[in-house]
Amino acid sequence: MLNLMRLEMKKFHLGAYVKGAIIANFVILGFLFMILFISKVEGDPGLENYEVAFSVIDSFVRAVFMIFASTLIAKLIIGEYKFKTITLAFMYPISRKKLMVAKLAIVMLFTFSMIIISNALITTIFCIISDRYELIPDVLSSSLIIQQIPSVLMNAIAASGIALIPLYFGMRKYSIPTTIISSIIIVSVTSSNSGNFTLNDIIIIPITLAIVGLGIAYLAIRNIEKVDV
């Protein structure tokens, strides 16, 4: 399975996605400092403490990489069906189900690892700069950082499952735009902020959506033998 995943990653040149992820991290950092700058100019509290800042960072990161995941699904799966290149892959002496599992595993592992790494990287850079220049009127403590770790891990796991939901919409007509747009809609609904509150804060919602995503992946794997290519 690991060899199959490695071959798929090499085949689709997924190293470019890692470079894109690095660029996305700096874009997120730019947005954060822009928020701080605007709040300073307007005299608005903005990110009034580090707890709020960590929540905003996590929301940005999850939103970005759930959309990244939809582009991976579009490239690894939907695009192959749309342009009939999956037919060639099915000619090799490899189980169709195993091939689909490898593709979905790549999407989930990429989403999970990038959310964890990006959270750690962005939080570290943000805290160093904001603490040095006193951008946030709050004291940063190690206990606060430690408290965020379980939340980030849980959110990353849930996001990895939710990221599979666009597979359902994309597979209906093998539409790449539909796959990506459905991901954007899901992110918009779950991550939209209203008074420092998002639907993701209601723990049952991300868990339920993650289960739905895993269910869609399971059905895609189970029914792959029936799919006409």
What are its keywords?
mainly alpha; about 230 residues; elongated
Description of the structure:
The two termini are 23 Å apart. 33% of the residues are buried. Helix 2 (15-42) packs parallel to helix 5, helix 5 (96-132) packs antiparallel against helix 9 (204-222) and helix 6 runs parallel beside helix 9 (204-222). The protein has nine helices and no strands. Helix content is 77%, strand content 0%. By secondary structure, it is mostly helical.
Briefly say what this structure is.
The protein has 229 residues and is mainly alpha-helical. The chain is built from nine helices and no strands.
Number of strands: 0
Sequence stretches where pLDDT stays below 50 over 5 or more residues: none
The SSE order reads HHHHHHHHH
As a whole number of angstroms, the C-alpha radius of gyration is 19 Å
Distance separating the two termini:
23 Å
Instruction: Calculate the mean pLDDT score and round it.
Output: 89
Largest sheet: none
Shape: elongated
- Structure classification: mainly alpha
Q: What percentage of the residues does DSSP assign to strands (E)?
A: under 5%
Compute the number of helices: 9
Helix content: over 70%
Reconstruct the topology from this structure.
Blueprint: H1 2-11, H2 15-42, H3 50-82, H4 86-90, H5 96-132, H6 142-162, H7 166-173, H8 176-191, H9 204-222
Helix pairs in contact: 1-5, 2-3, 2-5, 3-5, 3-6, 3-7, 3-8, 5-6, 5-9, 6-9, 7-8
